[in-house]
Specification:
Blueprint lengths: L1 E10 L4 E3 H7 L4 H8 L3 E3 L8 H16 L8 E5 L10 H9 L5 E5 L5 H14 L5 E8 L10 H4 L5 E10 L3 E8 L7 E2 L20 E2 L1 H23 L8 E4 L4 H10 L11 H4 L6 H11 L8 E8 L3 E8 L1
Parallel strand pairs: 4-5, 4-6, 11-12
Antiparallel strand pairs: 1-7, 2-3, 6-7, 8-13, 9-10, 12-13
The structure holds acetyl coenzyme *A.
The site of acetyl coenzyme *A has 24 residues, from helix 2, helix 6 and helix 7.
């Protein structure tokens, strides 16, 4: 048996922040942001009731309803995030409590923007091993809380949001997958946790914010994602033309179009939402998947190739039949 996605959901914060709004509070412009990234606006958390947990739960409820599955039927909940509300317990346990998913094991995965794919691959492995049959995976981020709002080179790029998928063991679904990491690239995209302030180490350091070497990430993303897609298709014995849609991590429109060009495929095969969501890290692929499902762009039997990259460095990809 393999993992099959049977329902999706998503949640974006109410507040939409356009490039013009950002230009009014920092030295940037719609022209700079749009030409370099394709981003026009992003949703950002703007009230105390909008949290990583609240967005995860809303996306999860939608996915469960779409799949016609009750929370009590779930055996497993995995949340992929780097911006949980708590260091402990895991966001997945809090989601479990809110949903009343009393029979599920729940834990989080930190693989940055590749997190949703790591979660999907983990569920597929559990299903292949016969351990679990029904799972909920969520990619969720409130990256706005770890951004340095005085650093225009990073803060304009990201958005907040959540995407979820319900997965069931089925004869057909996942066709092939891969994931990988290279810790040697750990310094190009970094956000330190709180520093130790125990009685023996006294540090005065204020918390760090997200640091990114944009050009290094750009080069890595184009090379590694193209490679991942080619390896995965080869593994499955499929041609790129057989794929209905390539759902890539929504970091930057230029990265996505470079990959499409390298694969000699038309841009229509690469739906995007980076223009109105920005980069929502682990949430970007499931939000996009939910959008295209709601737009009725998917039919049974369609082939989807999901692929992403992120801090770590990490990368992952999955080829599946809808
Ligand atoms: N507005 C106006 N000017 C800006 C801004 C801004 N928001 N940010 C930077 N600049 C300026 C810089 O100061 C620099 O000015 P200078 O030439 O006078 O020094 C100039 O613009 C060019 O800056 P670069 O960093 O060279 O711009 P670049 O063309 O490389 O684009 C970008 C930057 C958009 C970040 C690009 O490198 C990129 O997209 N990288 C990939 C990022 C990415 O994918 N991140 C996701 C990673 S994984 C994850 O999702 C967590």
């Amino acid at each position: 048996m393999r993992a099959k996605i049977i329902g999706t959901g998503s949640c974006l914060p109410e507040k939409i922040v356009t490039n013009e709004t950002l230009s009014a509070i920092m030295d940037t412009s719609d022209q700079w942001i749009r030409s370099r990234t394709g981003i026009r606006e992003r949703h950002l958390v703007s009230s105390e009731t909008e949290t990583t947990l609240s967005m995860a739960v809303q996306a999860a409820r939608e996915a469960l309803s779409d799949a016609d599955i009750l929370p009590q039927q779930l055996d497993l909940i995995i949340v992929a995030t780097v911006s949980s509300d708590y260091i402990t317990p895991a966001a997945a346990c809090l989601v479990q409590k809110e949903l009343g998913a009393c029979h599920a094991a729940a834990f989080d995965i930190n693989a940055a923007c590749s997190g949703f794919l790591f979660a999907l691959n983990t569920v597929d492995a559990y299903i292949q091993a016969g351990i679990y049959q029904t799972a909920l995976i969520i990619g969720v981020e409130t990256l706005s809380k770890i951004l340095d709002w005085s650093d225009r080179s990073t803060c304009v790029l990201f958005g907040d949001g959540a995407g979820a998928a319900v997965i069931k063991a089925a004869e057909e679904g996942m066709i092939a997958s891969l994931q990988g990491s290279d810790g040697n690239g750990s310094d190009v995209l970094v956000c330190r946790n709180r520093t130790n302030n125990n009685p023996w180490i006294s540090t005065d350091k204020s918390p760090d914010y997200l640091y990114m070497n944009g050009q290094e990430v750009f080069k890595f993303a184009v090379k590694k994602e193209t490679e991942c897609i080619q390896i995965l298709l080869e593994k499955a014995g499929m041609e790129p033309e057989e794929v209905t849609y390539f759902l890539l991590h929504q970091a930057n429109y230029r990265i996505i179009s470079s990959i499409a060009r390298k694969l000699k495929l038309p841009p229509e095969k690469f739906p995007t939402n980076v223009d109105h969501c920005g980069n929502t890290s682990a949430a970007s692929i499931p939000i996009l998947l939910d959008e295209i499902r709601k737009d009725r762009k998917l039919s049974p039997g369609d082939i989807l190739l999901l692929s992403g990259f992120g801090a770590g460095l990490t990368w992952g990809a999955a080829l599946l039949r809808w």
